[in-house]
Amino acid sequence: MNIILREGEKSDMASVLMLIKELADFEKESNAVEVTEKELIDDGFGTVPAFKVFVAEWQDEIIGMALFYERYSTWKGRSIHLEDLIVKKEHRGNGVGKKLYTEVLTYAYRQKLKRVSWEVLDWNKVAVDFYTSTGARILEGWQVVHMNEQSLEAFIEKN
Amino acid sequence: MNIILREGEKSDMASVLMLIKELADFEKESNAVEVTEKELIDDGFGTVPAFKVFVAEWQDEIIGMALFYERYSTWKGRSIHLEDLIVKKEHRGNGVGKKLYTEVLTYAYRQKLKRVSWEVLDWNKVAVDFYTSTGARILEGWQVVHMNEQSLEAFIEKN
Question: Predicted ipTM?
Answer without folding.
Answer: 0.95
